[in-house]
Amino acid sequence: MPTPRARAEWAARVHAEYRSAAHSARLAHLCIACGLDEDLARRALQVAGEELDHARLSHQVLVALGGGDEPQAIDAGELLLPPSPDGPLADLVDLAVRGFCLGETFAVPLFAAMRTEARHPRARDVLDRILADEARHRQLGWDLLDALLALDPDGVRRRVQDKLPGWLDAFRQAYRPADEAVPLSDEERAVGLLPAAAYRQAHDRCRAEDIGARLRARGLG
Ligand SMILES: [Fe+2]
Ligand SMILES: [Fe+2]
Fold first, then answer.
1. What is the CATH code of the structural domain delimited by 4-217?
2. What is the reported pLDDT for 148?
3. Ligand 2 centre from 41 Cα, in Å?
4. How many angstroms does the Cα of residue 153 sit away from the middle of ligand 1?
């Protein structure tokens, strides 16, 4: 039987995907407000739609695990990002780099690791769909960063260099859950749960290799 821990993980996934949808819609709004290339705004809108799909699909996994089909509670404070006192371009830089260059890039190996041992049919199908989308979400972040660096090379570079250490540290903390008191069962692994050590490993490798190389290529490493 699926465990409360498996249901809690998929409930957290619903929240995380819904939050990603809100942040992607905000990204599209900021792209339009800052006059970025129309194609980038359209791609952000597409990502917002895909993140809503991910939230709905993740909820279907939760229901398949016996989680009940009540809607999940919404915390509007977590979904509405307060505007930066430094203006909309600063908001766009922060959201593009923290949420997409970092968040969506860290997400790709994490979902790949979740998918590796997932044998539950519904969880496997949903993870396949999410994984297929996440690489494009990651690419949007880096394309946005390049567009922003072209728009205001010195200002954007300075802001990213100032903020990057704090953002990276926050991801490092988030990817270091405490080791589980009771090891994961085969059934929990089958619905995509990962041991804490796998989270740390996915983070550390992605930071050192993928994100490190992309930052260095832009003189930001
Ligand atoms: Fe997603
Ligand atoms: Fe995503």
1. 1.20.1260.10
2. 98
3. 15
4. 30
